Amino acid sequence: MTSSHPSTEFSDTISAIVENHVMLITINNPPVNAISASVRQGLMAALDQAATSDIIQGVVITGAGSTFVAGADIKEFGQPVTEPTLPQVTERLANFNKTIIAAVNGAALGGGAEIAIACHGRVASGKSSFGMPEVKLGLVPGAGGTQRLPRLIAADLALDIIGTGRTLKSTESLAAGLIDELTDEDNLIVCAKNASLKPAAKRVTPHYDAQKFANIKTGILRKSRGQNAPLKAVELVELSQQLDLSQGLGQERQIFLQLRDSDEAKALRHVFFAERTAKKPAMLEGVSPEDIKILGVVGMGLMGSGIIVSALNAGYQVIGVEQTEEAALAGHQRILNILEKNLQSGRLNREGFERQKKALIIAGTLESLAPADLVIEAVFDDFDVKAKLFQALDQIVRASAILATNTSYLNPNDIAAATIYPQRVIGMHFFSPAHIMRLVEVIHTSHSSLEAVASGFAVANKLKKLPILSGVTEGFIGNSIFSAYRREAEFLLEDGALPHEIDAALEDYGFAMGLFAVYDMAGLEIAWAKRKREALNRDPQLRYVKIADQLCELGRFGQKSGLGWYQYTQGKREIDPVVTELIAAARREKNITPQSFTKEQIQERLLQAMQAQGNLLLQTGIAASASDIDLVMINGYGFPSHKGGPMFASGAFD
């Protein structure tokens, strides 16, 4: 015979019901059960009742819906802390006088993971996941995560989770000992209740692989590139093996509070909120996108293949078209190679692999695109080629289907004007490799309907990309700013800096690689061809640096030729005296007396060039917001996210 009591509301986000001597506490703070003040207060009130009740012998905590707890409440970011704090809650859980089991029904992230590991045991469903992504916001876990996790699982794995912010799926969590039992959703609460009626298991800190720990530490430090949070995460996990728990928790809290108020954390919070805003532009509020089910992609080179793989990953049916049967076969093989790599790496299981293969249709004629709801062209960046393609599609796809150009520099207004239905033409500027890079600039032309633009956003969001709204200008947002940044770097060469000095200053700032090293890796000939095309229309009064052209004229096309801005000996990048002399000659020709620049002066000039162009884009309405510009530069051009982007660095958000 069961015994139960009515459900009790302990706050507007916490309810509990007592049945068969177990209190089941449910966190219900949609959409992701974030740990708000209401959640913390309600949990403490429920625990107060459980602690003093003779009827209650065990406690289970779970989340409503499909999420356990996905972290802190972002509405409280930057606000004064309201008690009880999360460390107070997790301390209460860990030292509670009755067994508490976390029934983890979905994602347990950040503070949610800290709540789960503070409980005396964890039962999880197959849909559960665990992660502590605080380093991605310039923080470390601040409610016991850095101290309790390395005592629960091997310290090397704990370091990997905390230091990189990566998430574990349920099976990996079970193998690691992070969860005690894995069950299906229907049995989750029953299993957790049963576990709560048993004495809490005594746990011994597991042994770990010291060499593996050292390797993971080295990798985190190498990738940190000026970020402080990953370094502090490493320090705290190391302290968990040296101090007792109470001392470790004290150190963790002190470091968490220092990081919370740091410039790094402020910059990363800016990026976090900017992404949320960018995905829902004000211009599209209340606008419904078209229902897109079938995607067409014309052109199956590197860019087109990457777009197709992204679309298959998102569950779309895709029609890929090339101009010849031979090119179609080559593109098809390129796509299959990417899918097979995803299968081998575990990003895709066998069932998903077969499903994606079946969802792809390859054709050698445009007529195959007739059923497509949206067609993205990824053909050669030539106006006549693109305009003729869209004119042909006017006769093939239905009038309501959307046409998206992937041009980098051409004017989408002109491409749209060449079609019968210009209102359905938008730009979708993907970044290569398109199946890896997050950024997509969604371009609204002077003709585009809001429904067409909204559809581009909806597709980009489904592809798990970061869509940024842009108006029409040469290079849109990203390439427009990048061009200004590149020009200023070349002016610096003439003014006295050398390529390795500029690159070193950029890497010191937090870029993964300096500008001239990136040029060499990408190859210099593509940009050279573009400059030659533009030469006839270039204003002779504007300052122009021809050093890059001279390198190409000498056959120095970068790493592939062993010579570019640098020379490469057995793949190793080295300063080349030929380039140094070429730069010196350019200065002599213009009667420029070279100056010496500090790394800070180099950084400042390059930042100012980006900011000036960004301000111009805002003034002309090309960019909707300064934060959009920051996101483009971070996600498309390697600007360090922990600096917040060039506009944030200018103090635009102070």
From TrEMBL:
<feature type="domain" description="3-hydroxyacyl-CoA dehydrogenase C-terminal">
    <location>
        <begin position="475"/>
        <end position="568"/>
    </location>
</feature>
<keyword id="KW-0276">Fatty acid metabolism</keyword>
<dbReference type="InterPro" id="IPR006176">
    <property type="entry name" value="3-OHacyl-CoA_DH_NAD-bd"/>
</dbReference>
<keyword id="KW-0560">Oxidoreductase</keyword>
<dbReference type="Pfam" id="PF02737">
    <property type="entry name" value="3HCDH_N"/>
</dbReference>
<dbReference type="InterPro" id="IPR006108">
    <property type="entry name" value="3HC_DH_C"/>
</dbReference>
<dbReference type="InterPro" id="IPR001753">
    <property type="entry name" value="Enoyl-CoA_hydra/iso"/>
</dbReference>
<dbReference type="InterPro" id="IPR008927">
    <property type="entry name" value="6-PGluconate_DH-like_C_sf"/>
</dbReference>
<protein>
    <submittedName>
        <fullName>3-hydroxyacyl-CoA dehydrogenase NAD-binding domain-containing protein</fullName>
    </submittedName>
</protein>
<comment type="pathway">
    <text>Lipid metabolism; fatty acid beta-oxidation.</text>
</comment>
<dbReference type="Pfam" id="PF00725">
    <property type="entry name" value="3HCDH"/>
</dbReference>
<keyword id="KW-0456">Lyase</keyword>
<keyword id="KW-0413">Isomerase</keyword>
<feature type="domain" description="3-hydroxyacyl-CoA dehydrogenase NAD binding">
    <location>
        <begin position="296"/>
        <end position="469"/>
    </location>
</feature>
<keyword id="KW-0442">Lipid degradation</keyword>
<keyword id="KW-0576">Peroxisome</keyword>
<keyword id="KW-0520">NAD</keyword>
<dbReference type="Pfam" id="PF00378">
    <property type="entry name" value="ECH_1"/>
</dbReference>
<dbReference type="InterPro" id="IPR029045">
    <property type="entry name" value="ClpP/crotonase-like_dom_sf"/>
</dbReference>
<keyword id="KW-0511">Multifunctional enzyme</keyword>
<comment type="subunit">
    <text>Monomer.</text>
</comment>
<dbReference type="InterPro" id="IPR036291">
    <property type="entry name" value="NAD(P)-bd_dom_sf"/>
</dbReference>
<keyword id="KW-0443">Lipid metabolism</keyword>
